[in-house]
Amino acid sequence: MKKEYILYFDSGTSNTRAYLLDREFRICDSAKRAVGSKDSAIAGTNRVLIEGMKALYDQVLAANSLTDGDVEAIYASGMVTSPYGLKEVPHLVLPMTVRDFADSLYPFHEDTCFHRDIFLVPGLKTLSDDFSFVNNLRGEEIEIIGALEELKAERDVENVVMLMPGSHTHGIYIQGDQITGIISNFTGELFYALKQDTILSPVLTSDSLELDEAMVRKGIENLERFGFNRALYICHAMRIFEQGTPQQRLSYGESVIMGGVRQSLEYYCEHFWKECRTVALVSDEFMYRLFSMILEGSRYIDRIIWMPISDGKSYGVSGLKKIVSLKGERHE
Q1: Which of 20-34, 103-117, 201-215 comes out lowest in average pLDDT?
Q2: Structure confidence by residue, pLDDT tens digits, 264-287
Q3: Distance between first and last Cα of the chain
Q4: 20 to 30 A Cα–Cα from 315, which one of 18, 52, 138, 162?
Q5: CB neighbour list of residue 302: distance below 8 Å, 6 or more residues apart
Q6: Which residues contact 152 (CB under 8 A, 6 or more apart)?
């Protein structure tokens, strides 16, 4: 009987999503489970992750009246290749073409629960004699390839930084079909820590998704004028002395916390990525508006392309389709 389906896991630190795909890589179904590499780290064994992924696998198959025999291949990306994932797989070193990347899938035979091969997507890294220029990512690499495929189909772009806000905000430099560099920034996790465990919590806690453009500009101005620590204190002082509305204070705080991404990006564009004038922002609408304001007036970036993300769309799935098609074979 012909096997008609592919199962793709996108597994992070805290959550794992499973996508059931047909042979054309169209999403037939998906499900999410609160299990990730963090759970393996806490338990001291990856058994909890493997069992959680298998339960998610069984759930998706059962919901579609399928069995393991209907699944042609299983792929997984993200933190599954970390020390607390399914199998630690070394990062691939940039620069690298998309075609070279497609040839680097790692076959891992999981014999505890699945009893079959799972093809793991490695992360990426840059190397340097100066540790100041070392960067790495896991999980975003397959999304980059999927987003790049869409970007090249719709836009005339050769040299572009793909900016992906998240717990870490990565900027990935792409020249043609070659991924040449990464710059990684500590952002979402920093925002969360400041919001949860500091006196800035009242400022950074807001249900509003509106941004005050003047306060975003002020945050960038003070970040460059005073540095991060003083600029962030001003955010606290605004609340103490009742300056501005809650929306304005949040806009200022977001700008200070995320503004370092502009600083690092401009440094790289000045010294390394000199042919780049375009940023492709893979994000939700809020982050698109925020970074449009943050990058306004940049000497190095004069074009921003928004690539929206949503629950019903996965650049990871698009990236998987691309690398499997380049590999030119189906895995048994």
Answers
A1: 201-215
A2: 999 999 999 999 999 999 999 999
A3: 13
A4: 52
A5: 277, 278
A6: none
Burial of 79 (0-12, 13-18, 19+ CB in 10 A): buried
Rg (CA), the chain: 21
pLDDT tens track for 73-105: 999 999 999 999 999 999 999 999 999 999 999
Give kind and range of the element (H or E) at residue 224: helix 213-226
The C-alpha angle with vertex 193 and arms to 289 and 147, in degrees rounded to 5, equals 40
Q: For the chain, what are the domain ranges?
A: 5-155+314-327, 185-301
Give yes or no for residue 294 having a pLDDT over 80: yes
Contacts of 3 (CB under 8 A, 6+ apart): 69, 70, 71, 72
117 token code pair: 């091969």
Of the candidates 39, 43, 114, 36, which has an alpha carbon nearest to the alpha carbon of residue 75?
114
Please give the CATH number for the structural domain made up of 5-155+314-327. 3.30.420.300
Mean pLDDT, rounded, for 180-205? 95
For the chain, what's the residue count?
332
